[in-house]
Design goal:
Elements lengths: L3 H10 L9 E4 L2 E5 L9 H9 L4 H6 L1 E4 L3 H13 L3 E5 L5 H9 L3 E4 L4 H15 L2 E2 L6 H17 L5 E5 L4 H13 L4 E7 L4 H8 L22 H10 L2 E5 L1 H15 L5 H21 L6 E5 L6 H9 L1
Parallel strand pairs: 2-10, 3-4, 3-6, 4-5, 7-8, 7-10, 8-9
Antiparallel strand pairs: 1-2
Helix pairs in contact: 1-7, 2-4, 2-7, 4-5, 7-8, 8-10, 11-12, 11-13
Length: about 325
């Protein structure tokens, strides 16, 4: 399990690559704006914490990862900063903006299938063949600790917070954030939010062990892992109070709400936590501060295809 000390150490390592993102108070809800990271998502934190700890021989050989987009861009950016070769295995359905993002940072792109299991298998093959180091997208203690630095910043920027809404894909962000926050303020409620069409964490919690979904479907392409990690599931079971699901319509509405109320561009995955906050509390409930509630939602990413984004905000 990742400790508070692990997260604090990660916060030191990632300085100069990841940035301290702002917290915006937008009417009833405070927003932690990870969409304003250098590559547009929180993933740079975990990638930097892991890659920065690799020994010289591993750096020289290069790194590889598998990603639907944001983690791949994060690994590519961090590898470029450290002068390390990088390979990213991406699904064949990846939005063009995320492919271009990976290539912009100088990484090689390989396409493999449509699910996280497809791209993981191909990445493992390439890792073995080329002698590369794998940078897992979520199920790794160094990656989790890096993502947990978001939680440290939330407590510093909003000391009165009572509830934090966190998107849940494979579970790296919610694992790190919950470990950090519960390590400092055990009374803060952590709520995970995942798409109805990819409810792997909800299903796994109900079963009491990680469950692999037969299929996933949602506009939130960054939250489509078919299975939680073993380590991330353990963290979620230990630290997370609730996991809720939201529909694609609710996610679209959250993208529109962020545009209209906060002038923030969020991809569907990045708006999922806001969708969860609005679904669970509603704007009026959040505004009234029910039972002294102070809610924060993490806007986890903003890498969205322009045409798709236009359709979300004009519907």
């Amino acid at each position: 399990m990742v400790t508070l000390d692990d997260v604090r150490a990660a916060a030191v390592r990632i300085r100069g690559v990841a940035v301290r993102t702002p917290m915006l108070d937008v009417g009833p809800l405070a927003l932690k704006c990870e969409n304003l990271q250098p590559m547009g998502a929180f993933k740079v934190r975990g990638a930097c914490n892991m890659i920065s700890q690799l020994p010289p021989a591993s750096r020289a050989a290069g790194v590889i990862t598998y990603s639907s987009g944001n983690h791949g861009q994060a690994v590519a950016l961090v590898a470029q900063r450290f002068g390390i070769p990088a390979v990213v295995v991406m699904p064949e359905t990846t939005p063009l903006i995320k492919i271009e993002g990976v290539r912009r940072y100088g990484a090689e792109v390989i396409f493999a299938g449509t699910t996280s299991l497809h791209r993981q298998a191909r990445a493992e093959e390439e890792r073995e063949r080329r002698g590369l180091t794998m940078v897992p997208p979520f199920d790794d203690p160094w990656v989790i600790a890096g993502q947990g630095t978001v939680g440290l910043e939330i407590l510093e920027q909003c000391p009165s917070v009572t509830t934090v809404f966190v998107p849940a894909g494979g579970g790296g962000l919610i694992s790190g954030v919950s470990a950090a926050i519960k390590g400092m303020r055990s009374g803060v409620r952590i709520v995970g939010v995942e798409p109805e069409g990819a409810a792997k964490m909800s299903r796994s919690r109900a079963a009491g062990h990680p469950v692999t979904l037969d299929e996933v479907s949602s506009i939130a392409d960054g939250l489509l892992a078919v299975r939680p990690g073993d380590l991330t599931f353990e963290h979620v079971q230990t630290f997370v109070n609730d996991v809720i699901t939201v529909s694609d319509d609710q996610i679209r509405a959250a993208v529109r709400w962020l545009f209209g109320e906060a002038n923030l561009v969020a991809e569907p995955s990045g708006a999922a936590a806001v969708a969860g906050a609005l679904a669970l509390r509603g704007v009026e409930g959040l505004a009234s501060g029910l039972s002294g509630e102070v809610s924060v939602a993490i806007v986890s990413g903003g890498n969205v295809d322009p045409a798709a984004y236009a359709s979300y905000i004009t519907q």
